[in-house]
Design goal:
Helix content of chain A: under 10%
Strand content of chain A: over 45%
Largest sheet of chain A: 5 strands, mixed
Number of strands of chain A: 11
Low-confidence stretches of chain A: none
Number of helices of chain B: 0
Oligomer: heterodimer
Number of strands of chain B: 11
Largest interface: A-B, 26 and 27 residues
Helix content of chain B: under 10%
Radius of gyration of chain B: 13 Å
Strand order of the largest sheet of chain A: 1-11-8-3-4
């Protein structure tokens, strides 16, 4: 299985940018990098995904290294609501049209007021 | 659009019983996936259904089963409950068109406690 490595936890001050790293040295050429997050007592929610180029959306930015062996999720201005576990996920093809989400341990982000 | 709904939200059962959990996907979504989340093992994939057919299955014993109906609603069943089955069971729906960028939308989960 394509694996990702993330720090167990990170802290950030409110209203400051946060850079959440992810290593995926065994990524294949067609694997997209997906980020989901799980707020306390909720199901996971989609954050962003990308293949090669950097990506931006209303929630975050995704910076992908040129060799694609690592990526960084950037929250431009952390709020208390961003305190969550962030998962970096690759989705290799599982057959029969299925691209399974395989969650690792993720990074628990704490935001300090 | 309404989000993914799961019923019931909380459930208490005893060992040896069976349980059925229900998931209603977002309207128009044809794929439903189920996950088990425990403090020790984290989020683990159970199975995925698409157009009433199971198209992917995780590494769980045969006591865990599921099905999908023609309206895309899905149920999962756990028979002969064990203490270790206590977990948050999450359902996620997606359009299911087979794209590797297919976003999954998760429900709030069903918290199952086995006594």
């Amino acid at each position: 299985d394509a694996k990702t490595t993330q720090p167990n936890s990170m802290e950030s001050n409110e209203e400051e940018p946060v850079h959440l790293p992810c290593n995926h040295s065994t990524i294949s050429g067609t694997d997209y990098i997906h980020w989901y997050r799980q707020l306390p007592s909720q199901g996971p929610e989609y954050v962003i995904h990308g293949l090669t180029s950097n990506v931006n959306n209303r929630m975050a930015s995704l910076a992908i290294a040129e060799d694609r062996k690592s990526s960084t999720l950037i929250l431009h201005r952390a709020t208390l609501r961003d305190a969550a576990v962030y998962y970096c996920i690759l989705r290799p093809y599982s057959g029969a049209g299925s691209y399974q989400l395989t969650f690792g341990k993720g990074t628990k982000l704490s935001v300090i007021p | 659009k309404a989000g993914v709904t799961q019923t019931p939200r909380y459930l208490i059962k005893t060992r040896g019983q069976q349980v059925t959990l229900s998931c209603s996907p977002i309207s128009g979504h044809r794929s439903v996936s189920w996950y088990q989340q425990t403090p020790g093992q984290g989020l683990q994939f159970l199975f995925e259904y698409f157009s009433e057919t199971q198209r992917n299955k995780g590494n769980f014993p045969g006591r865990f089963s599921g099905r999908q109906f023609s309206n895309s609603r899905s149920e999962m069943n756990v028979s002969t409950l064990e203490l270790g089955d206590s977990a948050l069971y999450l359902c996620a729906s997606s359009p299911g068109d087979g794209a590797r960028t297919d976003t999954q939308y998760f429900g709030p989960g069903t918290r199952l406690t086995v006594l």
